[in-house]
Specification:
With about 70 residues, this protein is of the alpha+beta class. The chain has one domain. The protein has a 3-stranded antiparallel sheet with strand order 1-2-3, with no helix packed on it. Strand 1 and strand 2 form a beta hairpin. The longest helix is centred in the N-terminal third of the chain and has 22 residues. The mean pLDDT is about 75.
Length: about 70
């Protein structure tokens, strides 16, 4: 009976430790890349990672409903 109780306790401890280790890992990051509409739907912006640092994100205007002049004004 003592042997069975020891096995159950050791299994329970090993299971709890495994669960605790898995909770400590950070969630995988979500890739923000893609082309998105602005809130008013007047432009499309391409978002992608840029540079050597993985946390850097750049956005590029890929199209606009209304053309901009040389100064960038609509």
């Amino acid at each position: 009976m003592k042997i069975v109780l020891r096995i159950i306790i050791r299994t329970a401890i090993a299971t709890l430790l495994t669960i605790a280790q898995n909770r400590g890992h950070a969630a995988t990051s979500i890739d923000p890349s893609g082309t998105f509409l602005t809130e008013d739907g007047r432009a499309g912006v391409r978002v992608e990672r840029c540079g050597s640092a993985p946390e850097r994100i750049c956005g590029y205007i890929v199209w606009m409903k209304d053309a901009a002049d040389a100064k960038g004004d609509i």
